[in-house]
């Protein structure tokens, strides 16, 4: 019975579980009262789950609300709504909200809703003092309570009848900021305020301005007073006095400075006044400034002074400003419209003025050392005025210039620049130098004692004609140098090498090597080399020609190899020829001697072989006769032996067949031997005369001809025809 009840209960439970079916239709998020909420007002974020069920059963929902991706609220409820209550909305609550609902392993997600809390809390401004002296600093603090960074604070310093000074301070980690404002000269009553800013989706949002904070400014000292005695309009020679004073609350660290045109004339410290006096000159006219400083505070007063002219500046005149040495110079000094001044004429010098004469007029005979600047001075009532300087130039005549090549040697390589220098040992600068190439003027240079000229257009025919002129302001005129002839060096071009004979040379004979160039100035240095593991110099010679011949005597087998030549001249450029190859071979008579020696040896060897063969044959015949004598009776003495004649006949046939089997080889060997026999040397004649005398004569004749016309038979040479 109990078992039946248990089965029925389990089946009912299974049927009940199978009957709990639900699905999320929609999950949405709502904001009350709206998505724009005024700062400080209450706000509710509602997450609603729209769920369909197959039956009416209770379902637990897990609600989670996020702001800008961060969890801000969560709850579990069997209701389909969850509320996130914010009693006081602040700017920090602005952002994107979304919610998630989880029920029995299923999830539902809402869309995102942007909530904007409009407005910010009112900022609070405080100052560290209510009164300040000029030059001091006022420290301000602005705070936005309950706001969350990042924020930006804007501070303002407000003055009457003046534009406000603004300072902006961004704050990323705190909701307050502090700044300092400098209290300047002229500040009286200052007002300060601030406001905050934060960045929202639509841009920047500003808070209300804070309360205004009032700061009263006090002066540490008053603006200075500047006066002149007897007045600010005086005449040259009058005594003028300046007095600068101020009223100061604290005398310590006070400084008074008196200046004109940025030049400090006098100064005092820890005093309330300053005095300055001088004899007035016309240069004293202008603006004067009295400045009082204490710490960072500075106040100034300006005053213009006008000084009337007592007499004009003197004028110095000279009879001549450019003159030859030993000429007479007259200097005179005068003042326009005024008489009674005391005059003096001086010469200016780096070590000080040199007094020449206390007079209006001064005359002297000049030399070169008198070149310089001269002035005159006029004095009235202790007022001294000086004229403008007059430059006097005394000239010595130039000497005859010398023209030379800067490198020293009067020659130049074709295509290279030529630099000339024209120098005059004597003469007062500046000196004007003129360069000529032939009759054509090339350059004019003004310098002290020398000038240079660079000729970059050197041609093959430019072998001379350079000269230069020198002149200065002396009346003697110009001087001309001697004509400079310059040699143009043509560089070496296209060296070539040939030989007689060409290619193969017999041992013991002579070889002539010809090295030539297509172009190049004489003399030319020729060098002959043989290529080995390293370059070997064989011969060198200097020629006043475009070619040279080197005779190498008695060539040997070790002289076989590659040869080349190199040519150079004063252009300092080595030009190398193409290499040629020389093979040293045996002479014809040497070949004959070797052939005769070989054939003689072969003939001797053949004779020895024949002797050995005949001797062996003879022994074989004697042995055969002895054997036949034992078996047969002795025949009559007439000499007819049957067996003997048969043996000889067989032996002859055997030799004949052997010779025939050799065939052509033996015949050719006999032919070679016959030819050698025909050309066998006569032991009574000199080696190499038979059969080679005509060839030797022809070579010798060719060599003799080559000395007369080396262009016609130099084998291997580019000039060969």
UniProtKB/TrEMBL annotation:
Organism expressing this protein natively: Cyanoderma ruficeps (rufous-capped babbler)
SUPFAM superfamilies per UniProt: Immunoglobulin (SSF48726)
Alphabetized PANTHER family for the sequence: IMMUNOGLOBULIN FC RECEPTOR, PLATELET ENDOTHELIAL CELL ADHESION MOLECULE
Cellular-component GO terms for this entry: anchoring junction; external side of plasma membrane; membrane raft
Region ranges (Disordered): 671-693
Stretch forming the signal peptide: 1-19
Protein name (record): Platelet endothelial cell adhesion molecule
InterPro entries: Ig-like_dom (IPR007110), Ig-like_dom_sf (IPR036179), Ig-like_fold (IPR013783), Ig_Fc_receptor (IPR050488), Ig_sub (IPR003599), Ig_sub2 (IPR003598)
GO biological process: cell surface receptor signaling pathway; cell-cell adhesion via plasma-membrane adhesion molecules; immune response
């Amino acid at each position: 019975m109990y078992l039946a009840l248990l089965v029925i209960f389990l089946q009912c439970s299974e049927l009940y579980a199978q009957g709990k079916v639900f699905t999320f239709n929609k999950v949405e998020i709502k904001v009350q009262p709206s998505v724009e909420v005024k700062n400080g007002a209450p706000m509710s974020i509602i997450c609603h789950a729209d769920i369909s069920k197959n039956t009416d059963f209770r379902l637990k929902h897990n609600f989670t609300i996020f702001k800008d991706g961060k969890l801000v609220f969560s709850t579990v409820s069997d209701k389909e709504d969850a509320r996130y209550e914010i009693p006081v909305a602040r700017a920090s609550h602005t952002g994107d909200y979304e919610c998630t609902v989880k029920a029995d392993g299923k999830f539902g997600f809402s869309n995102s809703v942007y909530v904007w809390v409009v407005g910010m809390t009112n900022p609070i401004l405080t100052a560290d003092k209510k009164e300040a002296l000029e030059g001091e600093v006022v420290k301000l603090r602005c705070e936005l309570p309950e706001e969350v960074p990042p924020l930006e604070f804007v501070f303002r310093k407000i003055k009457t009848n003046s534009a406000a000074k603004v300072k902006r301070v961004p704050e990323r980690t705190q909701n307050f900021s502090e700044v300092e404002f400098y209290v300047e000269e002229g500040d009286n009553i200052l007002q300060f305020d601030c406001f905050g800013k934060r960045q929202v989706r639509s841009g920047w949002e500003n808070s209300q301005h804070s309360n205004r904070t009032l700061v009263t400014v006090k002066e540490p000292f008053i603006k200075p007073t500047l006066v002149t005695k007897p007045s600010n309009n005086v005449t040259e020679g009058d005594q003028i006095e300046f007095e600068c004073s101020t009223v100061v609350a604290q005398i310590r660290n006070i400084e008074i400075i008196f200046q004109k045109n940025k030049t400090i004339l006098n100064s005092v410290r820890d005093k309330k006044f300053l005095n300055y006096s001088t004899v007035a000159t016309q240069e004293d006219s202008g603006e004067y400034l009295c400045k009082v400083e204490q710490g960072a505070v500075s106040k100034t007063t300006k005053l213009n002074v006008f000084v009337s002219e007592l007499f004009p500046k003197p004028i110095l005149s000279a009879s001549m400003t450019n003159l030859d040495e030993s000429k007479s110079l007259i200097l005179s000094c005068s003042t326009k419209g005024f008489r009674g001044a005391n005059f003096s004429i001086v010469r200016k010098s780096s070590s000080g003025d040199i007094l020449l004469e206390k007079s209006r007029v001064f005359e002297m005979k000049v030399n070169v050392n008198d070149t310089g600047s001269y002035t005159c001075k006029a004095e009235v009532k202790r007022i001294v005025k000086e004229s403008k300087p007059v430059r006097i130039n005394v000239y010595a005549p130039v000497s005859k210039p010398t023209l030379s090549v800067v490198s020293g040697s009067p020659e130049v390589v074709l295509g290279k620049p030529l630099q000339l220098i024209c120098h005059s040992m004597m003469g007062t600068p500046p000196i004007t130098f003129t360069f000529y190439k032939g009759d054509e003027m090339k350059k004019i240079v003004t310098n002290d004692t020398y000038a240079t000229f660079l000729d970059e257009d050197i041609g093959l025919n430019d072998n001379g004609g350079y000269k230069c002129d020198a002149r200065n302001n002396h009346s003697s005129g110009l001087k001309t140098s001697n004509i400079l002839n310059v040699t143009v060096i043509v560089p070496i071009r296209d060296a070539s090498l040939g030989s007689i004979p060409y290619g193969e040379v017999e041992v013991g004979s002579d070889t002539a090597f010809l090295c030539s160039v297509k172009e190049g100035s004489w003399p030319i240095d020729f060098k002959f080399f043989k290529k080995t593991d390293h370059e070997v110099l064989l011969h060198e010679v200097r020629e006043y020609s475009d070619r040279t011949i080197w005779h190498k005597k008695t060539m040997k087998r070790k002289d076989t190899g590659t040869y080349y030549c190199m040519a150079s001249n004063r252009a300092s450029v080595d030009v190398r020829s193409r290499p040629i190859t020389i093979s040293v071979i045996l002479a014809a008579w040497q070949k004959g001697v070797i052939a005769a020696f070989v054939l003689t040896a072969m003939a001797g060897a053949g004779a020895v072989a024949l002797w050995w063969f005949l001797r062996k044959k003879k022994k074989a015949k004697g042995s055969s006769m002895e054997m036949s004598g034992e078996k047969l009776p002795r025949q009559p003495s007439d000499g007819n032996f049957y067996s003997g004649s048969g043996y000889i006949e067989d032996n002859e046939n055997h030799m004949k067949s052997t010779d025939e089997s050799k065939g052509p080889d033996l015949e050719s060997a006999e032919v070679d031997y016959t030819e050698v026999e025909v050309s066998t040397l006569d032991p009574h004649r000199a080696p190499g005369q038979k059969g080679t005398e005509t060839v030797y004569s022809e070579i010798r004749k060719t060599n003799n001809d080559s000395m007369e016309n080396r262009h016609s038979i130099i084998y291997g040479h580019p000039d060969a025809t």
